[in-house]
Amino acid sequence: FGHNDGSPDKADRYTPPADYRRNLARFVAEARARQANPVLMTPVVRRRFDQAGGFCDTHGEYPDLVRAVAAELEVPLIDMHRASERVLRDHGAERSRGLFLHLAPGENANYPAGLQDDTHFSSAGAELMAALVVQGIRDAVPALAAHLVPAAER
Length: 154
What we know:
Layout: H1 17-33, E1 40-41, H2 62-73, E2 77-78, H3 80-95, E3 100-103, E4 115-121, H4 123-140, H5 142-145
Parallel strand pairs: 1-2
Antiparallel strand pairs: 3-4
Helix pairs in contact: 1-2
């Protein structure tokens, strides 16, 4: 949640912050009503850097709303926003391109003209984000972590 909700220019997806928070709380309540154990996760960051190479967040207040609902309702939280931001800052503006769908013309048949997508991950970026989720599960939901299958066994 959060990637598309915070885009006011996309009326089909936009959710105002107050509604977003209410929806998260409702999802938690509905999951618990069915004896499920909800886990909240903040959105991953987009790749945005300023002219000087400094990282720029694009999600505004939405990650903090997830954190607030998790704290208020005592729900485990996997903070992918902070974890993915650390990765992008460590990689920097240029090296982080490899984590996203940056394709040269002719490189991929699905995108013959190429693609410069700073929201969706490449295979390498997706694997890295998945590893962050696994670590987040280990940290925030140890009971669930016991059910993770090591990559070597898949």
